[in-house]
Structures are given as C-alpha cells and as structure tokens.
Amino acid sequence: MTGPRTATVEDALRQVALTEPEIRAWVRVDADGARAAALRAPAGPLHGIPFGVKDIIDVTGLPTECGSPLRRGRTATSDAWLVERLRLAGAVPLGKTVTTEFAYFHPGPTRNPHDHGRTPGGSSSGSAAAVAAGVVPLALGSQTAGSLTRPASFCGVAGYVAPVGAWPTRGFTGLSPSLDAPGLLTARVADLAPVIEAVDGTTAEDPRSIRVLAWPGTELADVEPAMLDALERTAGTLGATDLGRAVGTYRLAEAHAVVMAYEAALALAAEAEHPESLSGQLNELLERGRRTTDGDHRAALALARTARIAVLELLTRADAILGPAAPGPAPYGLDATGTPVLSRPWQLLGLPVVTVPGHRDPYGMPLGLQLIGHPDRVGRLLGVARAVEEAIQ
C-alpha cells in the first residue's frame, strides 16, 4: 500500500533505483518494511523521514552483517538504541548501508557519488554516499577513529559524532568501547540540529559571537594545499586564532592507535579464530592488539585523561577547534579508504565533532572541515557549525 504517509519513502526508493547501480551504497533495502513502518510511524518531529542504517547497527528483523562473511545472515531481534529513538520521533529505516569490514579499513563496494573512481571513505561509507546521492536525508554511522568524519568530508555532506558515552551503543557492533561513538550524516549542518534534538533534546544555540581556534593538522599528515586554503579562508572569515602547540596531537594519535588495537583484539577475539575469513588489514590490527600489553593500554588511557582535562579547559574559553576533516579530497581508487589520522586525537578524547561541507578543490571534489567542541556544550557547537557553513556558502 502506498499513499501520502509513504510518499517520502517512495521517493527514496525511486532514488535507490536510479543511483544504486553506480554508487552501491546499500547492503539491503527493506522496501516493504519501510512502507509498513511509514504507515504506523508516530507523528513526531521526524515523521516519515527515511534513514539509512550502517550495517553494524541493529534494526529489528534485518541482518547485521558488518561487512563480513562471519556475520552473514545474523538477524537482529531488536533495534539499536539510536534506531529506537529515531522511530519514536517518526523516522523510518529504509535499510542497511555498506560498512567496511567490522568498521575497520577493508572497503566495501561503495563509490564516491562525486567521482565513481574515488573512495567514499570508511567505515560509514554507504551512509555518507546514500546522503550525498540524495537517496535519504539522514543516515546513521559510527566513529572509532575517523569512520564518519572522513566519509562526510569525502562525500561533501555534514556529519555529527556524538561525545563518547553520550549516546548508548546498545545494538552496535563496536571495535573499541573507549572510542566507539554513534553519529549522523545529513546533507547540511542545518539538517543535523532537528535530528539531534529529537534524539536527546539538545537544541542548537544561535551564537552572537564565535571564538574558534584554528588547527591545520600538518604535524599529523601532509595536508594538501586546497584543504589548507579552505581552512585558512574560513578561519580568516571567522577571525580564528591559532591553536598553536597547546595540544600534543601527535602523541594523542599514537595513543589512540594503541587503545584501538588493544580493545579491538578483545572485542573480536571470537572472529580472530577464523583469520582466513578476515582481511589482511583486520588480521594485522588484531595481531597488534594481542601484542599490546595491559600496561601500554593503561598508559594510553592515562595520557588521554590528562590531555582531555587540558583541552576541555581550552574549550571553556573557545567555542571549537576548527581543522581539516581529512588531508585532502577523496583519493583515487576503491581499494583503500584514506587515512583517519586527523580524527584520532579528538576521538581519543571523546569529544563531539561536526563535519562542515561546502568547500571544493580545483577539480570540484568536496573538502570538509571539522569542528571539535566541548561535550557539555553540543548546542553551542551546532550553532557555531551552522554559522561556519553559512560563512563558507
């Protein structure tokens, strides 16, 4: 049955038919389930809005396969917390989007909507591409390193990574409890605010003035000239000041890698018993994690706690840290997903991040900037991100 209550879902299904042969963003589209859900959706603030769900996140009655043959056919018996919250607000899950293998580096089949020969990023690749291709206005992702920020930047969409621990990860297949965080992808920053408000009640503030610290990230990566130019132009428009060396991001990125490997080896211990069914990248991560000592893990977390205190103090005097969301535009090729290094320090500290789209390189490829904020001031961060988006346009 179709009608006014399912019209938006039908529009999305038509877009799937048009874009999926080239983009390959979806693992499974649940057309009948979405139509039925739209008919019974409550009249909430997100009524009838279809959304994609990264395939490490549970949706009742659909498989959660995590991009791995080891999870093939495993059907969820309940919704993840975030899916449940969106359903209560009236939104409708359209289906499951492609993820990299267990949300790590081994890519799926998804292509960048702006150039089919380039990566969409990882691991929330299908969700970012589905939004960028205009199939759904909202998709769910997650971040453990740069799994949402990077594909948002590469695909030219807005992204939100919740502070670690702020949104429950019930119903998520995670890699690292100390680092895993749910997130959202939408076409624009302005579209994030009503979704976040529906999920946890946070409202975006309208800042009268903006205080931003600019961070080029060049100590961690070879940031391309087009990205540095985008950062400099935006920072200049905002009157941003230089972050300087107040944060030891190189040490934080190293500590992040230690925590991620150690905890991934524990989280995927059962899967590690079948190395022939895992990619070389994931086997290497799990082996590195098994070699990491308890003491190394404790030391990395201790460094994170100390650095977090210092950065939070900075963020009581500034609204956000503005930096590149990736070293440059999406790289050519589909056999890798790009580096997450520019997200590692902030994910280790558990901070909220908004990816702001709008810039392009000379070839028309998207360049995203990231705004890192205080976990207790997400509303302020959203307001600043909206202002930054308007300044870019």
Tell me what the structure shows.
- This protein has 393 residues and is α/β, with parallel strands linked by helices.
- It folds into 2 domains: 4-200, Amidase signature (AS) enzymes (Alpha-Beta Complex); 212-392, Amidase signature (AS) enzymes (Alpha-Beta Complex).
- The protein contains 12 helices and 11 strands.
- The chain has helices at 7-23, 31-40, 81-88, 125-132, 149-155, 189-200, 225-238, 249-267, 280-291, 294-317, 344-348, 378-392; strands at residues 26-29, 50-54, 92-97, 138-143, 158-161, 181-186, 212-214, 241-242, 320-324, 353-360, 366-372.
- Strands 1-3-2-4-6-5-10-11-9-7-8 form an 11-stranded mixed β-sheet, sandwiched between helices.
- Strand 7, helix 7 and strand 8 form a beta-alpha-beta unit.
- Helix 6 packs antiparallel against helix 12 and helix 8 (249-267) packs across helix 9.
- The radius of gyration is 20 Å and the shape is globular.
- The mean pLDDT is 97.
Strand line-up across the major sheet: 1-3-2-4-6-5-10-11-9-7-8
What's the story with the biggest beta sheet? 11 strands, mixed
CATH architecture of the largest domain: Alpha-Beta Complex
Average pLDDT metric: 97
Number of strands: 11
Which helices and strands appear, and what pairs or packs with what?
Blueprint: H1 7-23, E1 26-29, H2 31-40, E2 50-54, H3 81-88, E3 92-97, H4 125-132, E4 138-143, H5 149-155, E5 158-161, E6 181-186, H6 189-200, E7 212-214, H7 225-238, E8 241-242, H8 249-267, H9 280-291, H10 294-317, E9 320-324, H11 344-348, E10 353-360, E11 366-372, H12 378-392
Parallel strand pairs: 2-3, 2-4, 7-8, 7-9
Antiparallel strand pairs: 1-3, 4-6, 5-6, 5-10, 9-11, 10-11
